Amino acid sequence: MLTPPPHPRPPLKTLADPTLVVFTLGSEAEARRKQLLGPAHYDLERTLFASELQRLLACGEEAGYRLAVAAPRPTAAGHHHVERVGQPSGSFGRRLAGSIALACPDPTAPWVVVGLDCPELGEGLLRRTRNLLRSDPADRRVVLGPSRDGGLYLIAANRPLAALLQQASWGHRRTAQSLRRLLLDAGLEIVELPLLGDLDCSGDLWRWLSKPTGHASPSAGPGSTALRRAIRRRLARPPAAAVAERVSAAPTRSPVGSRAPPN
Fold this sequence. Notes:
Layout: E1 19-23, H1 27-34, H2 42-62, E2 66-70, E3 82-85, H3 92-103, E4 111-114, H4 123-134, E5 141-146, E6 152-157, H5 162-167, H6 175-185, E7 189-192, H7 202-209, H8 222-235, H9 240-245
Parallel strand pairs: 1-2, 1-4, 2-3, 5-7
Antiparallel strand pairs: 4-6, 5-6
Helix pairs in contact: 1-2, 2-4, 2-8
């Protein structure tokens, strides 16, 4: 009896290293804009975003990415081999699309764009994203990382998406839905990563703080645990269980433009 051949797997593309683009206003501007901790703790919040930048770059480096930071002003990027590019003027979508083009000018090269406000994103998901792009021989796949507030913490593709990014509706709870519709209308395939939380308002911060430090996600990296402890000490907050009870009472200010992956 003849055994049918196994179902062939899709071929893996031979690609240059994808570029991880961290799209940010810079740690100082992020802290001033979001004010997750309030004006009295601006220095700690600035440290939070600066540490997130270093953590993301380290995760990207370990996952085999080229590294780029797109910011309006020069941003400290530690010892990493990082390309620094600016951001064009205009709407959020125009700034985002233009920054990706500056960081990754080869239209055939893969790219991944993230922001500084998702401490749950780590090396594991970046590796998974890279593999998803590599196993897309037709260049029709777009990887999306949806956040719990209806926005996105990651976008990735093997092709330019400038026109679609500029058409999407950024800054509200239908951002992910808007981009999904545009991608599907363009005949592209969407693959979604797990739903993660981000840091867009004070309530998000307290939810992050409420996670027991001893059970942090391995992909979150060691910096997240140390930062949670530092913030708790500075704010003289009780242990995680008590903080969790206060989540519903925390302010839920939502700054303009916060429903996008990169800020």
